[in-house]
DNA sequence: ATATAATTGTGAAATCGGTCACGACTTATT
DNA sequence: AATAAGTCGTGACCGATTTCACAATTATAT
């Protein structure tokens, strides 16, 4: 696999590109230039061309990119043909938001099961996803190797250890805790309080002229 | 204000540092080394020392950092003494999660009001935050200049224009749409689907040895 | 007192990411 | 057919960020 050469910054933008190219295709658009794409996704057009170029020459000079070809290419590259199963741990408000989000539609990612300790929730189905008791984690979590953590910070370490023991390889962590995992496990942190506070900090301390859209 | 010299990457880590130093203080810890902090927040210790050094010599060689002093320093630096008001637009599951999150506790950020169009929600109070009708945005949004957008993508552009017209200067956008704003307005995007898909992409295409914890 | 261990702060180097700018090629126009 | 306009792919550059590695300083142990 030659994907090792792709910069992480580029890799993080791929899903974004994919979604917009998908939209264009649905709109019946046949071709698109890096400039048009740039306006839509708010990424510099040179950056888009550079990103695409890591995968070879996907476009035609003087023409742009063929939408259908591009879409097919990204589908393969992002493994859109193969569904990825995900488990959600913690059915609070944030967790529920995920359960109602239809990731299948664009992303071929399926939240296959959820876990919580609340007896009111256990046994129900939310957005077509069954909710199991957290005690049954080891019993139910079969073959799933990506988890979304939307639980209180105090639970994070304990649950993480159990997930790791069950062979989870990727965790999307919404907990404020910075969890400790073996080095072969990938964790992405999304810390809502930090994001909000960072935004506020930038507003107060950086001149408006320098403003940019961050992710 | 000499904060202009502080790199953005450093600025984004400050809230994280602040929270952990706060924890240490509550635990009664008197001193901490960059190495200990590194283990806790999963940021290289040299990076932590570099980050701190932008604010001057906060530590003592051979000793580390005095927790209480560090805490006081960061409190001032992050404007912990001055509350920032925020408006939340869209009281769905994700929005509700924010309303229940007590940002005041650590961050001196206050969600002062929320807006939605659902008559069931308008007029209620969720987590001490009053919910107004979205039609009253212009009437109620007074002096608040940071907004959290947790609405459907289709609404994003319209609401954004109204927020901008009302003088909002910062937007935390959870919508998949990449909104268009004047250049003097700061937008941070958090796209849950993209985050999840990026995680899956990394798992599939990057060797486990290279795994890192990203934000 | 002395030696050893710990830890900072930072110059220098390395890495990473983004942008400019232009040659090469394609398409559209006259 | 010739010219003009549009657009890609990329070498070169720049700035930001991270990491290395070590002198300087402080704390601890004997």
From TrEMBL, chains A, B:
Q: Which residues bind DNA?
A: 16-55
Q: Which residues form the CoA-binding domain?
A: 79-178
Q: Does the keyword DNA-binding apply?
A: yes
Where, per UniProt, does this protein localize?
A: Cytoplasm
For this UniProt entry, the molecular function terms from Gene Ontology, in alphabetical order, are: DNA binding; DNA-binding transcription factor activity
Keywords, sorted A to Z: Cytoplasm, DNA-binding, NAD, Repressor, Transcription, Transcription regulation
Q: Does the keyword Transmembrane helix feature in the UniProt annotation?
A: no
Q: Name one GO biological process term.
A: negative regulation of DNA-templated transcription
Q: Which domain of life is it from?
A: Bacteria
One Gene Ontology term, aspect cellular component: cytoplasm
Question: Which parts of the sequence bind NAD(+)?
Answer: 90-95
Alphabetical list of HAMAP family matching this protein: Rex
Q: Which family does it belong to?
A: Belongs to the transcriptional regulatory Rex family.
Q: So what does this one do?
A: Modulates transcription in response to changes in cellular NADH/NAD(+) redox state.
Summarize the subunit comment: Homodimer.
Matching NCBIfam families, A to Z?
Answer: PRK05472.1-3, PRK05472.1-5, PRK05472.2-3, PRK05472.2-4, PRK05472.2-5
Q: What is this protein called?
A: Redox-sensing transcriptional repressor Rex
Organism phylogeny: Bacteria, Bacillati, Bacillota, Bacilli, Bacillales
């Amino acid at each position: 696999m030659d994907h090792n050469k792709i910069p992480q910054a580029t890799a993080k933008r791929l899903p974004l590109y994919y979604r917009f190219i998908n939209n264009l295709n649905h709109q019946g658009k046949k071709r698109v230039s890096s400039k048009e794409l740039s306006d839509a996704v708010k990424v510099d057009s040179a950056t888009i061309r550079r990103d695409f170029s890591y995968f070879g020459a996907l476009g035609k000079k003087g023409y742009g990119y063929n939408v259908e070809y591009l879409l097919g290419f990204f589908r393969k590259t992002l493994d859109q043909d193969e569904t990825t199963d995900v488990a959600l741990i913690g059915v609070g408000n944030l967790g529920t938001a995920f359960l109602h989000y239809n990731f299948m539609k664009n992303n071929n990612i399926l939240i296959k099961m959820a876990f919580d300790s609340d007896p009111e929730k256990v046994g129900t189905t939310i957005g077509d996803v069954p909710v199991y008791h957290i005690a049954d984690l080891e019993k139910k979590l079969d073959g799933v190797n990506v988890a979304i953590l939307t639980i209180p910070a105090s639970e994070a370490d304990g649950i993480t250890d159990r997930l790791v023991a069950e062979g989870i390889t990727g965790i999307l962590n919404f907990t404020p805790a910075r969890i400790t995992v073996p080095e072969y496990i990938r964790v992405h942190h999304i810390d809502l309080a930090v994001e909000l506070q960072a935004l506020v900090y930038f507003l107060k301390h950086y001149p408006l002229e320098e403003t940019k859209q961050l992710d």
